[in-house]
Write a structure and sequence with these properties.
CATH superfamily of the largest domain: D-3-phosphoglycerate dehydrogenase, domain 3
Number of helices: 18
Structural class: alpha/beta
Strand order of the largest sheet: 8-7-6-9-10-11-12
Shape: globular
Distance between the termini: 51 Å
């Protein structure tokens, strides 16, 4: 008799999901609240693990799961799962990318209305025995401008709900065209324009190197006096110290926050401000959302353990082992190349050519293309971009992608991305076993520098003294330079300086660098 496959559930999930697992012939054990050492011991006897946000699925836990074949995250984010280790061990990771879309969107709108009308504050005042009608005079949202940053599933749903409230909606998403925005009733604008026009601003983005503290003192300086901010996406997108200052100074009228940079959060200075509405990360906390995410994950686990394909894998598509072994070292290179392309040329892309040279041209490179597109799109979506969904998300944004194989004897291995739009752009990189990913071509300039970490890209005029002035200015701000390279096409013409630095640049440093005579622009890139 065949032994039943076993599933461990270590966080509370809806009974509907558990029933699907049992009906699928699996043995289910629910054991919540296990510390890491106990989980490491327990997981040895299971084929699948299902968690929510409470359990940290660390490398140690994964490596202890000698029978483990699949990990299910009943929710959108997979921040608490070490997907890299899972992938290396051949363990599939699945999630529920759309199960809480309406829950998060409805909470956003609830926060928006509560913020506009001071509902929590008025409720607390009345229950304390006060009748403060004048103190809690609010504003109408009708005809106000809502700025939506990030137009994935949740962002678009919020925009549609806001339009139902007769709000004017402007949006920013680096991969949504103006034509696509018009079809949704959203006017697509640049970030600075969105800040300047919006009465309310809501965020629907992942937290990554590009979005961390994207709203800081500079951005508040561009906003209307009396702006309202809503964040139910990820803590850390808004610089909490800068938000505190903006509210105290009267620049921001208030903020509604469901997420914080460090959670659980009970002692933030923001909680002491009457203008701040706060909830304890309730974005997915509806009965319906909990059922939806449990069903999505349970169905994938049953299908996978019974030999079928999964619908919501977040780590990688199926690739034959002999192919994967040859292309695997270039996965990080491809993703980093896509990331730097999106940061340097965010508005120039309607068509992409992904070029493979050397021995890479002999293999199925679809997984590398997916990895590159994953890096390209990861900045602006409110759901995880994965190797599985990257191509679909690109197609949804109208980006045409074509693979080009250039077979030439003796040619070095190279991955390049050529973007066609208003202006043709190109980047090229390789992987060196001893050194890691290396950037070799930046918009036609021959360079050679590590592709990763914090990079400063400085196009400039090829003339004496510029490199020294840039270096001295960074030194004045205690910014350490780890590596540097300069590319130029001809003496005295345009050139580009690349600096590997130890930390992101403060905004004021970027501004001062742009004022150095001969410097054309400055890009602070984070990979």
């Amino acid at each position: 008799m065949t032994e039943k496959k076993r599933v461990l559930i270590s966080d509370p999930v809806a009974e509907e999901g558990i029933k699907i697992l049992q009906d699928g012939g699996l043995e289910v054990v629910v054991n919540v609240g296990l510390p890491e050492d106990k989980l490491c011991e327990e997981i040895k006897n299971f084929d699948a693990l299902i968690v929510r946000s409470g359990t940290q699925v660390t490398a140690k836990v994964i490596e202890s799961g000698t029978r483990l074949k699949i990990i299910g995250r009943a929710g959108v984010g997979v921040d608490n799962v070490d997907t890299a280790v899972a992938t290396n061990r051949g363990i599939v990771v699945v999630n529920s990318p759309a199960g809480n879309t309406f829950a998060a969107a409805e909470l956003t709108v609830a926060h928006l209305l509560a913020l506009a009308r001071h509902l929590p504050q008025a409720n607390a005042s009345l229950k304390a025995g006060r009748w403060d009608r004048k103190k809690y005079t609010g504003v109408e949202v009708r005809k106000k401008v809502l700025g939506v940053i990030g137009l994935g599933k949740i962002g678009r749903t919020v925009a549609a709900m806001a339009q139902g409230l007769s709000m004017k909606v402007v949006g920013f998403d680096p991969f949504i065209t103006k034509e696509q925005g018009e079809a949704l009733g959203i006017r697509i604008v640049d970030l600075d324009e969105l800040y300047a026009e919006s009465d309310f601003i809501t965020f629907h983005l992942p937290l990554n190197a590009q979005t961390k503290n994207m709203i800081s003192a500079r951005e508040f300086g561009l906003m209307k006096k009396g702006v309202h901010l809503i964040n139910v996406a990820r803590g850390g997108i808004i610089d909490e110290a800068a938000l505190y200052d903006a509210i105290k100074e009267g620049k921001a009228a208030g903020a509604a926050l469901d997420v914080f940079e460090k959670e659980p959060c009970t002692d933030s200075p923001l909680l002491g401000l009457d203008q701040v509405i706060a909830t304890p990360h309730l974005g997915a906390s509806t009965v319906e959302a909990q059922i939806n995410v449990a069903i999505d994950v349970a169905e994938d686990v049953v299908t996978f353990l019974n030999g079928g394909p999964v619908a919501h894998a977040v780590n990688m598509p199926a690739v034959p082992p002999e192919v994967f072994n040859n292309v695997a070292p270039y996965l990080g290179t491809a993703e980093a190349l896509g990331s730097i392309f999106s940061q340097l040329f965010p508005k120039d892309t309607t068509e992409l050519e992904i070029i493979y040279r050397g021995k890479l041209s002999q293999y199925d490179t679809s997984i590398l293309t997916s990895s590159l597109v994953k890096g390209l799109l990861s900045w602006g979506l409110d759901q995880p971009v994965t190797l599985v969904n990257a191509m679909m998300e690109a197609k949804a944004r109208g980006i045409k992608i074509k693979e080009v194989k250039e077979v030439q004897n003796g040619t070095a291995d190279l991955i390049a991305i050529r973007g066609k739009g208003k202006k043709e752009r190109i980047l090229g990189a390789t992987f060196v076993p001893e050194l890691g990913p290396r950037l070799l071509n930046l918009d036609g300039f021959r360079v050679d520098i590590e592709l990763g970490g914090n990079m400063l890209v400085v196009p400039h005029k090829d003339q004496p003294g510029i490199i020294g002035k840039v270096g001295m200015l960074l030194g004045d701000y205690n910014i350490n330079i780890g590596a540097m390279d300069v590319g130029r096409k001809a003496q005295g013409q345009d050139a580009v300086m690349l600096l590997a630095i130890d930390q992101p640049l403060p905004v004021e440093v970027v501004k001062k660098l742009t004022l150095v005579p001969g410097v054309n622009s400055v890009a602070d890139v984070r990979i």
